[in-house]
Amino acid sequence: MQLALPRWSLVFLLCLSCDASTRGAQRPPTAKAASPATTANRPDSESGGVSAEPPPPAPQTSVEVPKSKPARKPGAWANIDPDDDDTVGPPERLEDCEGELKRAGVIFAKATLAVHEERFKKSKLTCGAPQVVTYLRGPGGITYSAPPLLSCAMAAALATFERILQEEAEAIFQSKVARIDHLGSYNCREMAAYRGWVSEHAYANAIDVARFTLKNGRVIDILRDFDRRPDEPQQAAGRFLRVISRRANDEDVFSHVLTPFYDALHKDHFHLDLARDRADGTRPRG
Predict the structure, then answer these.
(1) Residue 213: domain span
(2) Taking each helix axis from N to C terminus, what angle separates 236-250 and 152-173, rounded to the nearest 10 degrees?
(3) What is the model's pTM?
(4) What is d(CA 168, CA 149) in angstroms, rounded to the nearest whole number?
(5) Measured between alpha carbons, how far is 121 from 129 in angstroms, rounded to an integer?
(6) What is the pLDDT of residues 220-259, one digit of tens each?
(7) Cβ-based neighbours of 124, under 8 Å, separated by 6 or more
């Protein structure tokens, strides 16, 4: 006798047989994503070779670029580089010294002033300069009480100063400067106010001017005519001395322009030099 099964039971039996046929089968392993290092060293499918890792970056090296000196304006000889203010010693050689002086309209004679040491009571000074000339005549046609011995750059600066003198003398007096009386240029010595400190005179890098004589015979004397009051001078001689000293400073002709405003040691002259530092002694102090 054959037993009849319900339809739902037949479906159940068929599902059990399907599950049994696949239960023992193994799934394929899941592929893992390669790490960057593995990817870099596996065979390259396009080239057939091995992909090398990129080379490490080159080490960064800092290169110091030498600082260029500040540009100098034509006719300006003052030191405008703030980085060498503490340097003490003879001035550097001026490239194409003779050419510079000829272009500035200076008549000069070559001179020699060897760099040497001199001993004083409490100090030892280096004096002299590697490049000096005897200043005979400048572009202003001015004669000097004695031909000054100057460093080459100082001679060029004095030529610029002559041009300023003649411009202002004509404007104020309607007459040019004919003669300058000075108190000296080269002198191996210490600074008068600071013992043990070398003076720029020791390098022939300075000149002290005391008196100007015009072509019309008028004499402008610094001791007599310099007006130390803070207001602008009323007298023509005082105005002349005020304006030529300030132009020499403000137009960077000289590094130091010291007048009676600076101290009592300069009551009778202007000290002009090309030191490596700067000093404006053309205005009232304090």
Answers:
(1) 82-281
(2) 140
(3) 0.76
(4) 26
(5) 23
(6) 999 999 999 999 999 999 999 999 999 999 999 999 999 9
(7) 117, 118
